[in-house]
Amino acid sequence: MCGIVGLHLRKPDLYPRLGALLAGMLCEMEDRGADSAGIAVYGDPTWSPAGRGAISLIAVGASTDEVARALAAELGVDVSVQARGTTYLVNAGVDSEELLAAARKAYPKVLVGGFGSDLAVLKGVGRPTALAEAWGLAGAQGWQGVGHTRMATESAVTAGGAHPYAVGPDQCLVHNGSFSNHATVRRELIAAGVEFDSQNDTEVAARFVAHQLAAGKEVDVALKELCTTFDGFYTLLVSHRDSFAVVRDAIACKPAVIAETDDWVAMASEFRALAHLPGIEAARIWEPEPEVIYHWTRAEVSA
Amino acid sequence: MSPHVTTYDLATTPLRAVNQALHAPDLEGEVRIEHPLGAHSVAVGVNAPVKITIAGHVGYYAAGMSQQAEIVIEGNAGTGVAENMMSGTVVVKGNASQAAGATAHGGLLVIDGDAAARCGISMKGADIVVGGSVGHSSAFMAQAGRLVVRGDAGDGLGDSIYETRIYVRGTVRSLGADCVAKEMRPEHLEELAGLLKAAGHVHDDPASYTRYGSARKLYHFAATNTY
Fold it and tell me: Does residue A27 carry a catalytic annotation?
């Protein structure tokens, strides 16, 4: 089954409440998937401080101090590491890709949750409510967040199999459904030089989108391309530090509800995840149509 | 509020307790359910001549398997609203998600807004009147009853249809296998006028609708049945 939630805030007054709102949404979707969960938060001042590169490392197998020392030695700058559950949130005054390269060099087998200038990705195995508590999600701030509650079907119940898949800079993808031709697409991407962390079908979609974006395509073009390339069932929420997009497959049997007000755009697998958002009574609420790409950007908001 | 209305608040009362109360053998009068907050299976399996008002949006399968009751949902409904309804009425004031009225045998389902994909899938005798548009694969394998769409219909309308009659005022993106447009004869205009009236759309001109139904070519196997 799996559950998806996402919240894109337009009103800065709400930024301090992002984590609390997202935690409520995520926990409401626990019934749709309780084996593992993950979130991405854009813009938290301690999880991904402004002006610093940030990466998320999962189950590193070393203490936060050891990781900070090892990465500082690689980079020659001070590195901050904080533990949230089994995820280490790492930031430093360098570009996130430089920080990521240092982490991969120091810990070649480490699972990378995500990387970017404003992004923190946390994921783990367990019940979403317990994970949200361990992460301290309710205290997080920012302008955008996404979450996923997993009921595994296509690969093992591991942190590596948990969503979001954040495989490109400040990008993040969560998925409800299953892809049936992911092995074929994975082979094609591997042939094109793309590397994978897991056997998970969703990772293939995330790598596909990242590959398209890296080639200079806009997110809506990349998602159209995804619709023609992938076979299977999907409702996808694809985010970037400046954008928030939703797409469903042609059959559209995986649920999705979008709600929009002047203050926020929210998406979830089911309405009940949105039922407690401020101003929901007056929100425009609709079900996204199959193979239509719904896309919002921050630039549009501030314009 | 009149004194014989029993009110339940789903913010404080467990759904199971509310549904069990709605299954009491001597149920009558009016019931109001507040704060549904998108809960699933609200007011399923009711079999009594009661009026139930649900004040808000509901999740999946609301008013499923309903008999006799008159149920009004003052909001949107999730997947499978009034699925397998047997009799009575269900009114959705907002939009309905996919599979509204699936397999419904009898009664009237009115959706004031739009219905998503698979509206009236495998319907078996109910009447469904949608104020807006319906998504793809609506009336898929529909067997009996009537489906009225005041807006447009998506792809594959009436695919593999048996004997349901479909009336659409707007455009149909595509028809499914064995579903064809048919002539509006006087009995169809009369039937449609009655359905529109029952759903509160008294000003619609039945002549502005097109009837669709089964070409009856899939009833028997033929090697040339290719779609």
Answer: no
